[in-house]
Here is the input.
Amino acid sequence: MKYSHFLKIKPHKHFAVLIAPLFMAFSGTTIAAKCNIESSPLPTSGNITQSGTYTGSIRFQDDNLGFKTTRTFRIYFPEAYVNRANSNNTFPVLIGLHGGKIDNGCNFQDYSEFDSISHDMGNRGFIAIYPDARMTHRNNRNWGDGRSNDDKNHPNRFKTDDVGAIGEIIATLAEKYFINENQIYASGMSNGGVMAAELACNANFKYKIKGIGMVSSLMHPLQSDCSNRNVKTAIIFGEKDGIFT
Here is the structure.
């Protein structure tokens, strides 16, 4: 498998800032399942009057499973969103994808510190969305990141349509909130990193991913060539990284 063309980072005014925290945050160590970030229910009116974290959910028809599932997520709006000078100003979006097993969106929000970066960027801040993978077995959450069921590195791939679910989350939010549909990025760790690549390489929903940051993960063979999508990509490993899961 060839990864050479994925290892080049092309400059972009938002991309470098969005993935920068990941270079510092991870070195192959296990992240504790811990999160105490306060949140409020996402207002159905679409009116955000205070910056901070909100929680929401959608009902998604998962054709892979054959039934509807409830998909939960957290979303951070910076002060720049609330105080925008023009009511029609739109904001870039960063999708933060947690690792597999005991991890979840709240944990990833906590240790990635994307919210702080967005806040510090002032008027150039971005919206951060932290979806939760569907809980599968043994209280684990794992992304259906496109790897086959016989993948030796992760033999029990889940067939949930997470690409479709995340696309539906973005589409639902874009109807009510000021999202820049041309500036959507994804970044994740381990299983979440592979899922970021799946969104960039194999997703066919409306919103194209412009750049991804993959931490402690690699693209699988079905993702080995998505260069035609012009996705700006960084693949990041720490000195203590072992085999990712």
About this structure: The chain has one domain: 55-236. Confidence is low (pLDDT under 50) at residues 1-18, 20-30. Residues 50 and 82 are 6 Å apart (CA to CA). Strands lie at 40-41, 52-62, 67-77, 91-97, 127-131, 179-189, 209-215, 232-236.
